[in-house]
Amino acid sequence: MISASRVISFIGLLALAASLPLSEREENTAWAPTINYPNKWTVWCVGASHHVYWDASNPPPQITNPHGSIYLVTNNMVDFDHPLAQGFLLTAGVATITVPSVPPGWYQVDLDGDSGDWSAPFQITNC
């Protein structure tokens, strides 16, 4: 059961956040750029090189973490142990990856950095 004091504390925090000047709220907003490619029509071949593209056209004034990483996602599980790319600037809007040797199937890519976004599901196959 949630106590009344916790509810009041939560409401107080919300009020405090809303009272910040808009400029301060915008500066502290995490940036999660939308991944444009791969998309639902994409088929990648194991071992091939590809670019991952995202919309870098509207970054916030301050980016908490300007460097990104890209991971493969399967069955809603991110493979953090084997990054496809890392250390690139999120503002670049593109990174090159090599498709790892994985079983054919449906995958997604996870773009991490200031915040994160997952691509649409796409296929990886042995070509």
CATH superfamily: Macroglobulin (MG2) domain
Largest sheet: 7 strands, mixed
Helix share bin: 10-25%
Radius of gyration (CA) equals: 19 Å
The CATH architecture assignment turns out to be Sandwich
How many β-strand stretches? Answer: 10
Q: Could you report the average pLDDT, rounded to the nearest whole number?
A: 84
Question: Which residues sit in consecutive blocks of at least 5 with pLDDT less than 50?
Answer: 3-26
Give the SSE string: HHEEEEEEEEEE
Give the domain tally.
1
| CATH topology-level fold name | Immunoglobulin-like
Shape: elongated
Distance between the termini: 56 Å
CATH class: Mainly Beta
β-strand percent reads 35-45%
List keywords for this structure.
single chain, 127 residues, alpha+beta, Immunoglobulin-like, seven-stranded mixed sheet, 2 helices
Write up what this structure looks like.
With 127 residues, this protein is α+β, with helices and mostly antiparallel strands. The chain has one domain: Immunoglobulin-like (Sandwich), CATH 2.60.40.1930. Helices cover 17% and strands 37% of the residues. It has 2 helices and 10 strands. The chain has helices at 4-19, 22-27; strands at residues 35-37, 43-45, 49-54, 67-74, 77-78, 85-89, 94-98, 105-112, 116-118, 122-125. Strands 2, 4, 5, 6, 8, 9 and 10 form a 7-stranded mixed beta sheet that branches. A 3-stranded antiparallel beta sheet has the order 1-3-7, with no helix packed on it. The longest helix has 16 residues, at 4-19. The protein is elongated. The model is unreliable at 3-26 (pLDDT under 50). Residues 1-25 form the signal peptide. Keywords: Signal.
